Amino acid sequence: MFSLPTGTLAFLFTDIAGSTQLWDTQHAAMKQAHARQADIIAAGVTAHNGHVVRDRGEGDSTFSVFAAPADAVAAACDIQRALLAEEWPTDAPLRVRASLHVGPAELREGDYNSTAVNRCARLRSLAAGGQTLVSQAVTLMTEGMLPQGVTLRSLGTHRLKDLERPEEIFQLCHAELPDDFPPLRSLNSLPTNLPQQLNRFIGREAEIRQLTALLHPHDQKSASSPTHLLTLIGTGGAGKTRLSLQIGAELLEEYADGVWLVELAALSEPALLPQTVAATMEIRGDRNRPVMETLLEHLKSRNLLLLLDNCEHLLDACARFAETLLRACPQVKILATSREALNIAGERVHRVASLSLPDVRQPFTADCVTQYEAPLLFMERATQVKESFVLTDEMAPTLALLCHRLDGIPLAIELAAVRMRSLSIPDIYNRLDQRFRLLTGGGRTALPRQQTLRALIDWSYDLLSGSERLLLARLSVFSGGWTLTRAEVVCADDRIEEWEVLDLLSGLVDKSLVLAEESQGAIRYRMLETISQYGAEKLRESGEETMLRERHRDCYLALAEEARANLNGPEQANLLETLEAEHNNLRQAMVFCLQEPGGPPTGLRIAGALSQFWSIRGHSAEARRRFDALLAHPEAQERTQARALALNGAGILAYNQGDYAAARTLIEESLSIRKELQDTVGVSRSLSNLGLIAREQGEYARAHALYEESMVGLRATGDKLGIAICLFNQGRNAHDRSDYALARSIHQEGLAIWKELGDKSGTALALNGLGIVVFDEGDYAFARSLYEETLEIQRELKDGLGISNCLNNLGTIASAEGDYALARSQFEESLAIKRELGDRQGSAIACNNLGDVACGEHDYLLARSLYEQSLAIRREIGDRKGIAGSLNSLANLARLEADPALSRSLYLESLAIQQEIGDKPGLIGFLEGIASLQLDFGSAAQATRLWAAAERLREEFRTPPIWRLQKEIAQDLARAQEILGEEAFWAARIEGAALSMEQALDLAQKLLESG
Fold first, then answer.
1. Other CB atoms within 10 A of residue 231 CB
2. Which residues pair with 104 in a beta bridge?
3. Whole-angstrom Cα distance, residue 576 to residue 203?
4. Which residue from 849, 853, 855, 821 is spatially nearest to 834, judged by alpha carbons?
5. Cα 393 vs. chain centroid, distance in angstroms?
6. Cα–Cα distances in Å, from 589 out to 604, 616, 821, 989?
């Protein structure tokens, strides 16, 4: 397959004139003729070094490209001559109209897109059947190079339907081709007052096709409810006027009596509307007769499209005018633009959305960013004011953020682009908090309200009622949207009754100042950031800002604490989604707490209540920053329950990220406060959490002591729930040091308490812990029965996290038994649930497990992809222990693929992280991995030394490997012994067993670095 060219190209567009009638009346003959003309065109293009990009794909049109404009002219001439000489099966010969233009074109997904391509298509629309039109650019570039017998004759300067600059158009002439064609039906010859535009229209191709179809006269003959009034609504600056002009230009040829633009922005007297329309269309009547009567008489038999631009300040008058006109004039259609609908019978409303935006969470280059309308518009307008502007890959992410901060509003983007005369993209972005001072400087010929962003929004604000203005200002306290219920809680008082909020909010939606978006059957409201910033200014001016922010804070404190109390119940999924949807509001509430005197303690309550949500959803890095700021604030130093809870939550988040030193410091302070407050249950839980940290770092004796101390307080208070939780942690500690008998005994004791309490969630927790012990003992059948019993309980409780964890454990059994199909199914189901809940850490674990399955099946390509997905998630959420684990998985994979250099590099990166976090069990496992690498690609003696060091360290820390790994290590040791011989083997074992942890790690690192 050939590669399509890029750069500056010549374009040839063709289509069959009058094809619709031929298809309707001679379908079979037309099918044959259509295929033949496509073959003729393809042959002509190929013969002259061109490439057919599209044929038979868009009705009767074809699109071809050439590297040389002279080749394109020669191809067009030969094609028309061949088409003329052909004997066609249709009653009348086929006549093809064609156009030629030249310009830059970027290849995207197998197709081209640029201004030049679009302009060539518009040029074709002016041609008659058998006629080839040529742009001035092609004429200039082929001077002195035209094929023999070909001339280009000027047809004058014409305006095309894109409303851009006039174009001098030429006709391709040859002695064998017809020369007598009707005058071109460009904008010059059509009845219209549509203004010429100084820059090109960007994007909205699908939108334009949809809306022109609604207003197309011929498309509605058989329609049950034809559109006579289409109203484009949207926020100020959304591009309603420019879109309406483009639609009008597209439909010019369809309305015999023209497309007429009536600009209403400057009209302040509603009674003068009919007179303004009549004056625009140069309709004059009798002075003694009402203008409306004259207008109706003149238009009743006319076929035209009327554009009523900016109706919002004359809404009632425009509604009456449109209704009267459409009743009396059946062939007249109206395209209106307004902030809100006219609300008359038969009106079809289309909301003009912001321009498309890239996902700022994804990496992209300068080429990628141009796939989206908002950045493309900025680039187009920026190059007009600064010819040297070139978007680099480094600058592309900042441009994407800039366009997001401007909400994709075309006017805001254009005003920002004007600033490129004196500012860079980062300069503009950093000044957006002062956007109403920054975004000025529109064209002098634009309406005053379109020259600055503030004036544009002032125009909308001034049309609101007093209550609507008040609510708009109050709603600015929300960030990222809100629900009706929360708007009522925060915004209602003696000035706005609770029952009024819905009607006022609906009014703001109708006026395009608030967006209402439906998701899963629920409505959520939001304001564009530009409108929100404007509302915030009005709120400050009102003197209500502090009061509204306090209400907002209290509303979201209540949400956070309610969610914390129910996050492990059947509403878990809904609560996680609610907290995610309201995350920006919760952030805003905490920021306010830091800024307001007396606020930090409340901020600590919010943060403490959110710690589990943050952990599940992978927001640990952000959460720790927020905890740090709140805990360090001078007003949050009082040793209260709120501070103790926040310290504990921050400590658990640090623990989840593998930052054990910070976790220990935070939880120890929490423990100290709880002891002072004589909070026995809190003390026990802090002790238990300190035990978790000790266990994770291989300090099993310390962990056991902490759990025992925790248990003393719990038994003293008779807190069976706390005892059961502590027993679970003790069981995990015994399991981690491979004391399976003790672990089993402890879990069974805890299970008995959970059952006595009737706590199904706790029962499931204990059964799961017992299952892990039994699995590591190698009793897969018993482990499976325990996991299945746990799964049944979790399904009954509708605990998504619990269900996914059980499925993960069942998948681990299937994988250990070599049933990879079952393992994959269970891991994939687990992953689907975790993704649905937004559990990013859990998703990383599931991806890694699926990678292990792929490894077991020797599908190393898939395994790498899954391990890399796991690693990417863990890097994003800052899970350092998880990162080390994923790196180890990738290192082991590289070893299996016989790539020792990559394996060593990955092991080194993992080692640095494990040493930093002090993960002693992980470091011992690392030594065993390097030993395997040395056996496969290095030295059996060094491998034996490392295994011996790891074996002694496991004895020291009382953490032997699970039996499956013991079996693998034993097999590898036997292989090393065979290679070395008895004497050398045992000498290496003695040397390795004498190494300290530091010496063994130093040896492993040197072996990796030396290769």
1. 26
2. 8
3. 37
4. 849
5. 19
6. 11, 21, 48, 61
Find, among 184, 149, 190, the residue nearest to 169 by Cα. Answer: 184
Determine the pLDDT at residue 444.
Answer: 46
Binned at pLDDT 50, 70 and 90, residue 484 comes out as very high
pLDDT at 120: 86
Percent of the chain past pLDDT 70, that is, above it, reads: 92
Question: Which region, left, alpha or beta, applies to residue 19 given φ > 0 means left and ψ of -120 to 50 means alpha?
Answer: alpha
Question: Averaged over 601-608, what is the pLDDT?
Answer: 93
Beta strand 259-263 pairing with 304-309: parallel
Per CATH, domain 7-173 is 3.30.70.1230: yes
Domain 544-677 has CATH 3.40.470: no
- The total of other beta-carbon atoms located within 10 Å of residue 222's CB is 7
CATH architecture of 205-351: 3-Layer(aba) Sandwich (3.40)
- Give the C-alpha distances (Å, rounded to integers) separating 41 from 57, 143, 531: 14, 24, 53
Residue type, 609: A
The pLDDT value recorded for residue 602 is 94
Q: Is 372 helix (H, G, I), strand (E, B) or coil?
A: coil
Using the predicted structure, report yes or no on whether residue 56 has a pLDDT greater than 50: no
* 3-class DSSP string for 451-510: CEHHHHHHHHHCCCCHHHHHHHHHHCCCCCCECHHHHHHHHCCCCCCHHHHHHHHHHHHH
Q: Which amino acid is at 472?
A: L
For residue range 142-186, list pLDDT tens digits in order.
888 898 999 999 888 887 766 666 778 999 999 999 988 888 877
> How many residues in total does the chain contain?
1011
Q: What is the mean pLDDT of residues 675-680?
A: 87
Architecture of domain 464-543 in this structure:
Orthogonal Bundle (1.10)
What is the average pLDDT across 843-863?
Answer: 91
| Burial class (CB within 10 angstroms; exposed 0-12, middle 13-18, buried 19+) of 766 | buried
